[in-house]
Amino acid sequence: MVKLEGVFPVLITPMINEKEIDWEGFKNNIEHFINEGVTGITINGSTGEFVSLTKEERFKAVEVAVKQVNGRIPLVIGTAAETTADAIEYTQQAEKAGADAALLINSYYAHPKENEIYEHFKSVAESVKFPIMIYNNPFTSGVDISTETILKVGRDVDNITHVKESSGGIGKTRDIARQGKGFIRVFSGSEDLALESLLVGATGWISVSGNIVPRLVTDMYNHVQNGEMDEAWALYDKVLPLCKFLEDSGKYVQIVKRAMDLQGLAGGPCRKPRLPLNEEEEAKLKELLQSLETVTN
To answer: Is 109 a catalytic site residue?
Structure first.
């Protein structure tokens, strides 16, 4: 199995207009992230507007990404779906296409109970052989999966190897990392708790801000690995205002897409019901980009 650790930007799906995906821009963005030295990338996640994409578009995104990455860095595919059967189909397609792992959240409308979440994760994972990173995000799915369920499914299912923890509770990251040692590893999913998560045992970060400042967040992670904590904190302090803006705005997808546009990369509009940034949000983003010394037009 591929080694999953480090900072993985969770990519947007760039669009030419509300209906048409910018596939060339998608490929160019992937190349940009590889050139920036990221450890790996994730596609078809929430930041990639997976719920706004058709099945055919999601499948094509996997195929395009696998071909573009060409084995140079790990590629994780978001394979979330409301039903277990659909999640199995997306996950099997990702494995067959040649991706390295899948990122899987629980059903996000049904608000399933703990035993239902366990069975969902177990059924999907056992339908494939590659690694599965399960995902706890109560703000998106409406359910805060218990530490006990995460540990149990990780212990019981060999290829459930990681969890993306986005509950906002650093204690949960700590407990899973310590109690799950040897069978499940933690990735931070909270933009404003990334460094803290690494300090209590997380081994990676699925990063929204990594779209905008991929080298900066990768350097921060590398400093932590090298024990250079003053340097790590300096970079984290620099990126934290952007992280908080992404977490608090409710428009993280729009922010990233607009930031990509401003840096000369492929962004484009979101699909409705998401609307563009307003003037105040646009000004705030440009101010943050200038403080981070990114290129704006």
So the answer is: no
Average pLDDT over residues 157-178: 96
Cα–Cα distance measured from residue 175 to residue 150, given in angstroms and rounded to the nearest whole number: 11
pTM above 0.90, yes or no: yes
pLDDT of residue 140: 87
**Which tokens in the block code for residue 84?**
């277990």
Q: What are the structure tokens assigned to 26, written together?
A: 């998608």
Average pLDDT of span 165-184: 96
The Cα-based distances of 169 to 123, 138, 165, 190 in angstroms read 27, 11, 9, 9
Q: What is the DSSP string of 104-161?
A: EEPPSSS---HHHHHHHHHHHHTT-SS-EEEEE-HHHHS----HHHHHHHHHH-TTEE
Instruction: Tell how far CA 94 is from the center of its chain.
Output: 16
CB 11 within 8 A of CB 210: no
Mean per-residue pLDDT over the chain, rounded: 96
Specify the range with the lowest mean pLDDT, choosing from 49-53, 76-80, 88-92, 248-252: 248-252
Active-site residue among 118, 135, 236, 252?
135
Q: What is the DSSP letter of 102?
A: E
Q: Which pLDDT value is given to residue 294? A: 60
Q: Quick one: CA dihedral 98, 103, 105, 109, positive or negative?
A: negative
- Active-site hit among 118, 164, 236, 252: 164
Distances (CA, A) of 227 to 26, 185, 223, 240: 35, 20, 6, 20
CA distance 184 to 160: 7
Active site residue 238: no
